Amino acid sequence: MSNVEAAPQEVVCAEGPAAVELVEPRDVPLGGPRAMTVRRTLPRRKRSLIGAWCFVDHYGPDRVSATGGMQVPGHPHTGLQTVSWLFEGEIEHRDTTGAHAAVRPGELNLMTAGSGIAHSEFSTPGTDVLHGAQLWLALPRAHRQAAPAFEHYAPPQTGTRGAQLRVFLGSLGSETSPVATFSPLLGAEIVLDPGARLRLPVEESFEHGVLVDTGSVDVGGVTAGAGRLAYLPPGRSSVEAHADTSAGARLLLLGGEPLNERIVMWWNFIGSDHDEIAAYRRQWQDERSDPSRRDRRFGDFPEAWTATLPAPELPNARLIPRE
C-alpha cells in the first residue's frame, strides 16, 4: 500500500514514554472522490514505533462497489518491509522482483523493500467486501539496504480456551512462524469468543500493540474498540485480553524489541536524513520518466503496469529529526 497523502508528514521514530496507552486512529482517504478510507494508528505524534512496527492502517469492511476498493498503482518503497493481512476479500500484488501474488484472508504476504522496490495493489474483480490491515516494519540500519524480496506464508489456525490464533511472524505460545525477520518481532491474529479471557506469555523485552479489528477488548485495564490500538510497554511477561461478553472480538497482536534507532519516514521511504530521502524521491521520479534506464534502484516495472504514482513534493524546509 502507498501512503497517498498529498502532503505526507516527516516522521522521526524513537522510543516513547513507558506507559499503557490507547492510540486513537485518524481517517486517511486513499485518493479520489470515492476513496476507500483507512484508519491509521501508527505513526502518530504520541507514538511512532512498536518494536520495528512503524505503520498501521486498518480498513473495512469496505463495500468495493461503493468506493472502488483498493486501486494503488506502482509506487516505491525503501528501508522497510510491508506486511499485508486480510480478513475478507482479495488483493492482487505485483512488484519489481517479478512476484505476482494474491493476498488472501489469513495468509501473510511480506515484501522486503530494502534498497528499493516498487509494487502495485488492486482489489480483484471478484471482491465484494475488502477488510484488512496494512502494516510496515522499519528495517534496522544494518539491514536497510537488504536485497528486495517477497515471501508468502499461510499460518495454521490453533485453538486455546475460547480463542483461535494464527501466528504469522515470530513466536507465540507453541506456534512459531518460519518467516525470517531482521529484528525480534511478533505478529499474530487472535479471535476471541464472547466474554473470553486470554492470557498469553510474551517476551518481557518486547513492547506490544493490540489492534482491535472487531468487537471490544480490555487489554491491561484499557478498553479498546474497533480500530483502536492499545500499547503495552516492555516489562510484561504476559498479555491479557478480555472480550466483551455480548460479542466476540478479533485483534492483531504486534510486538518487538524497541528499535532504539531514529529513523526518518516520509511518504513511502525510510532513511536516515533529508538528503537520503530526497535522493530516493529523485531516483523514483527519474525512473518513472524513463522506464528504459539501466541504473534502476526500484527495479524493472512489470509489463502489466499502465501507471505509477508520482512522488509528492518535499516540504520547503529540510527534513529534520523531531521529538
Automatic annotation (TrEMBL):
<keyword id="KW-0479">Metal-binding</keyword>
<dbReference type="InterPro" id="IPR011051">
    <property type="entry name" value="RmlC_Cupin_sf"/>
</dbReference>
<dbReference type="GO" id="GO:0046872">
    <property type="term" value="F:metal ion binding"/>
</dbReference>
<dbReference type="InterPro" id="IPR012093">
    <property type="entry name" value="Pirin"/>
</dbReference>
<dbReference type="Pfam" id="PF02678">
    <property type="entry name" value="Pirin"/>
</dbReference>
<feature type="binding site">
    <location>
        <position position="77"/>
    </location>
    <ligand>
        <name>Fe cation</name>
    </ligand>
</feature>
<feature type="binding site">
    <location>
        <position position="119"/>
    </location>
    <ligand>
        <name>Fe cation</name>
    </ligand>
</feature>
<dbReference type="InterPro" id="IPR014710">
    <property type="entry name" value="RmlC-like_jellyroll"/>
</dbReference>
<dbReference type="InterPro" id="IPR003829">
    <property type="entry name" value="Pirin_N_dom"/>
</dbReference>
<dbReference type="InterPro" id="IPR008778">
    <property type="entry name" value="Pirin_C_dom"/>
</dbReference>
<dbReference type="Pfam" id="PF05726">
    <property type="entry name" value="Pirin_C"/>
</dbReference>
<feature type="binding site">
    <location>
        <position position="75"/>
    </location>
    <ligand>
        <name>Fe cation</name>
    </ligand>
</feature>
<feature type="domain" description="Pirin C-terminal">
    <location>
        <begin position="189"/>
        <end position="288"/>
    </location>
</feature>
<feature type="binding site">
    <location>
        <position position="121"/>
    </location>
    <ligand>
        <name>Fe cation</name>
    </ligand>
</feature>
<protein>
    <submittedName>
        <fullName>Redox-sensitive bicupin YhaK (Pirin superfamily)</fullName>
    </submittedName>
</protein>
<keyword id="KW-0408">Iron</keyword>
<comment type="similarity">
    <text>Belongs to the pirin family.</text>
</comment>
<feature type="domain" description="Pirin N-terminal">
    <location>
        <begin position="37"/>
        <end position="137"/>
    </location>
</feature>
